Amino acid sequence: MKQKVAFLGLGVMGGPMAGHLAKAGHHVTVYNRTRSKAEQWQTQHAQWDVAVADSPASAAQQAEFIFACVGNDHDLREVTVGPSGAFHAMPKGGVFVDHTTASAEIARELGVQAQSMGITFLDAPVSGGQAGAVNATLTVMVGGDQAAFDRTKPVAMAFSKAFTRVGDNGCGQLAKMVNQICVAGAIQGLAEGIAFGMRAGIDMKLVLEIISKGAAQSWQMEHRGPTMVDDKFDFGFAVDWMRKDLGLCLDEAKQRGALLPITALIDQFYGDVQRMGGQRWDTSSLIKRLR
Amino acid sequence: MKQKVAFLGLGVMGGPMAGHLAKAGHHVTVYNRTRSKAEQWQTQHAQWDVAVADSPASAAQQAEFIFACVGNDHDLREVTVGPSGAFHAMPKGGVFVDHTTASAEIARELGVQAQSMGITFLDAPVSGGQAGAVNATLTVMVGGDQAAFDRTKPVAMAFSKAFTRVGDNGCGQLAKMVNQICVAGAIQGLAEGIAFGMRAGIDMKLVLEIISKGAAQSWQMEHRGPTMVDDKFDFGFAVDWMRKDLGLCLDEAKQRGALLPITALIDQFYGDVQRMGGQRWDTSSLIKRLR
Questions:
Q1: How far apart are CA A125 and CA B228, in angstroms?
Q2: Which residues does chain B have within 8 Å of residue A181's beta carbon, measured at their own beta carbons?
Q3: Which of A92, A131, B169, B194 has an alpha carbon 20 to 30 Å from A63's alpha carbon atom?
Q4: Domains in chain B, please, with CATH?
Q5: What is the pLDDT of residues A8-62, one digit of tens each?
Q6: Cα gap A155→B51, rounded to integer Å
Q7: B10 DSSP assignment
Q8: Nearest CA of chain B to the CA of A218: how many Å?
Q9: Do B183 and A104 lie within an 8 Å CB cutoff?
Q10: For the whole model, what pTM was predicted?
């Protein structure tokens, strides 16, 4: 069913995600902080039913679903409850679907605030990176109201391969944090293994091929192992973004009394990589500080 | 082709491995430090062509291939070049295939010594655990002479799903070390992620199912994630053995000037688990110290 939707934030993730919504036949009104980027997106999608708005509020008017993918908690607050935020403008019954990786706390806050205004907020961070956004194969972890989730899912499947409700508001963000914690450990282990093997002079591509048949196997080993051996670090998700995400994990862990000793150290290691000039290198660049 | 082979060390790995050699039709002479264990193995394999020897030397007489799977460098030295070791007794041209996870240094030493005696030594540590030994699905990483490797492979395939030469003597052990380093990082990341998620109160089995479709996926997540959530730690490879292996990695890294900051810390964490009484828990028990 064709819907009136809005998309706030047309970055490397939001741009293609909004594009898939347009291609699925929805009327898509987009907003981006830098307006020229929204206009460029509009030009690229001129054959579909698309429009550009001047503010989150004006994008949200009459939209049944408002999707967002912005930078962080601060940006999210601005596009939702800020002076020209979407919440005030959304029609009653509308659903705000936030794909930003943000704190669980802001998800719970915005969930409560939305409910008091007769709308619904879903925290829905994604994994799958830029390639997942481009190829419409994102995995989306959702927190929030079941009925709103059920209504949103058919629309969001335009850019997702899985769109799964984990629990109430905040649970989507918590699931994404678990994801990032597991990713960080796998990458650091892989980085130490590869750096060790290269220093020892063994054929690491061959070794990765052998050991990825067993208990050492991981997505990171299969996809980033060979590129780490080749000293290539331009595969999407960047160090700066990872540090932001790990910061969220560490804050949340502190609040909950959870222990993340290795995650905390890996966060520091990513700091080393930033100091090496690797802010935009992909996350597998942890190996650079071991060479 | 039916061969005369020997197998030294009938532990949880060696026992089933020797069994597969017998079932493949080879004449298998076994030796075990505790003789009663060898006799028990003989009884269990009475329908095949098997024998028990009193020493590595007597097991090795006339054997074209001598396989070993013992505890550590010291045990390996004893069964090869010790007073009743196999090297002295092996026929010229014989191949000693060592499946022990040991140091790369001893592999190189024994390689040189074997060569001077007209025999060949292959370091051939395995991965796949007890289940891999029982089901003949071990992955074997081999260091040593190419021609001896080629002759050994058809025999060793009785218990392997892959038997791959990585390089010269020592390279098999180095590859196994890379494997253990990667495993350690993946498990610790997974442990932190799961402990964090459980403390935050989200449904971790559901979350693991969702995130194992993407960049956080690993063998450890798929196989040990759900059992970690269930607080079950009786799945083979034990903490004591992992500490031995990580010790080998850390020694080797020091010699090579390689950095293993997280591996070193995880080794310490396994020390915590040992102090909790977890010597025989499986390696996923790292999560116990985070709960």
A1: 25
A2: 189, 192-193, 196
A3: A131
A4: 4-169 (3.40.50.720), 175-290 (1.10.1040.10)
A5: 999 999 999 999 999 999 999 999 999 999 999 999 999 999 999 999 999 999 9
A6: 69
A7: -
A8: 4
A9: no
A10: 0.96
